[in-house]
Design a protein that fits this description.
The complex is a heterodimer of chains A (about 375) and B (about 260).
Chain A lengths: L2 E5 H11 L4 E4 L6 H13 L3 E4 L3 H13 L4 E5 L1 H16 L4 E7 L15 H5 L10 E3 L4 H18 L2 E7 H5 L1 E5 L28 E2 L6 H21 L3 E4 L6 E4 L2 H16 L4 E6 L1 E3 L3 H8 L4 E6 L4 H10 L5 E5 L8 H12 L9 H9 L4
Parallel strand pairs in A: 2-3, 2-4, 4-5, 5-7, 6-7, 11-12, 11-14, 14-15
Antiparallel strand pairs in A: 1-8, 6-13, 10-12
Helix pairs in contact in A: 1-2, 1-6, 3-4, 9-12
Chain B lengths: L30 H15 L5 E5 L14 E4 L5 H11 L4 E7 H7 L1 H9 L5 E6 L2 E2 L5 E2 L18 H4 L5 H6 L4 E8 L3 H19 L4 E7 L3 H4 L3 H15 L3 E5 L9
Parallel strand pairs in B: 1-2, 1-3, 3-4, 4-8, 7-8
Antiparallel strand pairs in B: 5-6, 7-9
Helix pairs in contact in B: 1-7, 3-4
The chains are: A alpha/beta (about 375), B alpha/beta (about 260).
The complex binds thiamine diphosphate (TPP) and iron/sulfur cluster.
């Protein structure tokens, strides 16, 4: 298959189709809408289900229903819409069902704006819905990577019976880049090829019930432990992370998605200046690449977290590094992407040995930001 | 006369589609009656193995303990959206939701109206008992003017708390709805009529005609503070005048079906 020019949102939609997507339910919201529009003709063309739902609440519960049958199913949205989906995501987790959600983040809180942001990191990575559960979070930083991760997101969701979130920001959803599409996979036949837990009508078999209610606390505890054990497997097997120039690095930048991409430009520029710096770009945000970061904490003098949120990932990096090296923050908010020069400045500061374990990095970053506003 | 000469005919038995189990409903509660009617219809149509139920949140959250089909259990109010998801990937299955008035006409009003407007080919069994049974008898959208509940202790004041919702009439105005009727469970005659309506609703689905809903006027003796007998009388005297039994939408293709 040749490389073609694809818009991020359309590319993700086509990748999902090729992964065997059987049903899509969604609601328009910028900067994700092209995904819904693409599937509104692509799915019917292939005889597959597409519904523009009445709301994200409707969409996520349609996903919930379709997931119960063992179908490959997906929704997509952006920040405010994803907030509405939290109820359904928790129910999907409580019922131990696989599903895929694409979240094309925009500026917030509230209605915010439609510019790229990463402010929903905590919402997606650390929960959002009620109860004890995890979602497997994949964070692409290019259109090709978005395609590749979407393609495997269904397999991961099904293997571990979790919701997989493909988490990107508006810039990756909207940008056009060359990408190569994977092969078209056959669609699962239902009920013949449905998994053994699926609800498909009790034709010649014991009936099945899918529910997230366990009135007896010991049963609920058992269910929670079952869910957690599966998650432990995800942690053991599925951490993904990409590193750049880390072999001899004495400083590490950590960033994901678009922020990671900007950071890479800055790292290259710093290398050109002779600064031994590398980049750690987490691809799975949950599970977080803890071991890799711990390992680099023993190698580098200091770290810099670059993100488009107010130090949300920073806290995860600090938790992992446990004070072994200073971790500083370079962030922009509200739909503004950090410029490579800003990141380069922050790297130079690390190289000058200005990173410190004193106080909180967010305070120092706020101090710098106060020069802007 | 020897025993073998006696011709015995079974006139009454538990439908195969109804589980043989102990009820968790209060004495006299009509949820059990409604479950049985659904089960009888599934038996008569021979569709038990082709049916997927969608339970809602309310006293009937455990509907799947009684109705002997594959089942899923929806978040509060979202059963029509969940049913949509099931039906769209398994269009040859019968999909029904079973929802209370709080579930369908309050928190789930958006989902039910949207499903009906889309003409979603599902059947909705709607239990109107004028209150939130499961949470202890609070005011529902269907609570009658002046009716006392635990959250309208001096009686529903329509000036402050608004007016009751006649949900099937509302749904009947949507072109996607092919069958929208109200029946009652307060006496045997009405129960028989209710069963025919449920049968018709599933026949609508069998023919791919779109959305069907049967409202069943029901009692909640526990939260009404009445004996089951008193509650049935109260339903007849107070609910039926506000919620008339009748057909609000009947698709012509099934208008002449008789059971
Ligand atoms: C999102 C959410 N809000 C509130 C509740 C609490 N709740 C459980 S059942 C119920 C009311 C159900 O009443 P109804 O639908 O009339 O059914 P009934 O119990 O009367 O049969 C409520 C409010 C919940 N489970 N979920
Ligand atoms: S509380 Fe009311 S609706 Fe619930 S089981 Fe008891 S009588 Fe029935």
């Amino acid at each position: 298959m040749a490389r073609e020019l694809w818009k991020g949102n359309n590319a993700i939609a086509e990748a999902a189709v090729r992964a065997g997507l059987q049903a899509y339910f969604g609601y328009p919201i910028t900067p994700q809408t092209e995904l819904l529009e693409y599937l509104s003709w692509r799915m019917p063309e292939l005889g597959r289900a597409f519904v523009q739902a009445e709301s994200e609440l409707g969409a996520v519960n349609m996903v919930y229903g379709a997931a119960c049958t063992g179908a490959r199913v997906m929704s997509s949205s952006s920040s405010p819409g994803v907030s509405l989906m939290m109820e359904g995501l928790s129910y999907l987790a409580g019922t131990e069902l696989p599903a895929v959600l694409v979240d094309v983040m925009r500026g917030g809180p509230g209605l915010g704006n439609i510019a790229p942001a990463q402010g929903d990191y905590n919402q997606i990575v650390h929960g959002g819905g009620h109860g004890d559960y995890n979602m497997l979070v994949l964070a692409p930083s290019s259109v090709q990577e978005a395609v590749d991760l979407t393609y495997i997101s269904f397999d991961l969701a099904e293997k571990y019976r979790v919701v997989t979130v493909v988490l990107l920001d508006g810039s990756i959803g909207q940008m056009m880049e060359p990408a190569e599409m994977p092969e078209m996979r056959p669609v699962r036949r239902l009920p013949e090829e449905a998994p053994e837990w699926a609800v498909t009508g009790a034709m010649g078999r014991q009936r099945r019930v899918l529910s997230s209610i366990y009135l007896q606390p010991p049963e609920e505890e058992e269910a929670n432990l079952r869910i957690l054990k599966r998650w432990q497997q995800v942690i053991a097997n599925e951490v993904r992370c990409k590193t750049y120039y880390m072999e001899d690095a004495r400083f590490a930048v950590v960033g994901f998605g678009s922020a990671g991409r900007v950071a890479l430009s800055a790292v290259r520029a710093a290398r050109a200046e002779g600064i031994p710096v590398g980049l750690v770009r987490p691809i799975t945000l949950n599970p977080f690449p803890e071991k890799i970061l711990q390992q680099y904490a023993g190698q580098v003098e200091s770290m810099l977290v670059v993100e488009m949120s107010a130090g949300q990932m920073l806290e995860d990096v600090r938790r992992v590094v446990q004070g072994r090296v200073p971790v500083e923050l370079c962030a922009r908010l509200g739909g503004i992407m950090p410029l490579p020069d800003e990141v380069l400045d922050a790297i130079r500061s690390l190289a000058r040995g200005e990173a410190t374990l004193e106080g909180h990095p967010r305070d120092r970053w706020l101090q710098r930001m106060s020069l802007l506003y | 006369m020897v025993m073998s000469d006696i011709q015995e005919e079974v006139v009454y038995q538990r439908p195969v589609s109804l589980e043989n189990t102990v009820t968790h409903y209060c004495p006299g509660c009509t949820h059990g009656t409604a479950h049985r009617l659904v089960a009888e219809v599934l038996d008569e149509m021979g569709i038990r193995e082709k049916t997927i139920g969608v339970a809602s949140v309310g006293c009937s959250v455990f509907a799947y303990n009684y109705i002997n089909t594959d089942f899923v259990q929806a978040p509060h109010g979202r059963a029509p959206a969940m049913a949509t998801g099931v039906k769209r990937v398994m269009p040859d299955r019968f999909v029904f939701t079973y929802q209370g008035d709080g579930d369908m006409a309050s928190i789930g009003m958006g989902e039910i109206v949207a499903a009906a407007a889309r003409g979603e080919n599902i059947t909705v069994i709607f239990i109107n008992n004028t209150n939130y049974g499961m949470t202890g008898g609070q005011m529902a959208p269907t609570t009658l003017p002046g009716q006392k509940t635990t959250s309208s202790p001096t009686g529903r004041d329509v000036e402050v708390q608004g007016y009751p919702v006649r949900a099937v009439e509302l749904l009947s105005t949507l072109d996607g709805a092919s069958y929208a009727v109200r029946r009652s469970l307060h006496d045997p005659k009405n129960i028989r009529m209710a069963k025919k309506a449920i049968r018709t609703a599933f026949e609508v689905q069998a023919r791919g005609l779109g959305f069907s809903v049967v409202e069943l006027l029901s009692i909640c003796p526990t939260n009404w503070g009445m004996t089951p007998d008193q509650a049935l009388n109260w339903l007849e005297q107070h609910m039926i005048p506000y919620y008339p039994i009748g057909d609000f939408k009947v698709h012509e293709a099934i208008a002449n079906l008789r059971f």
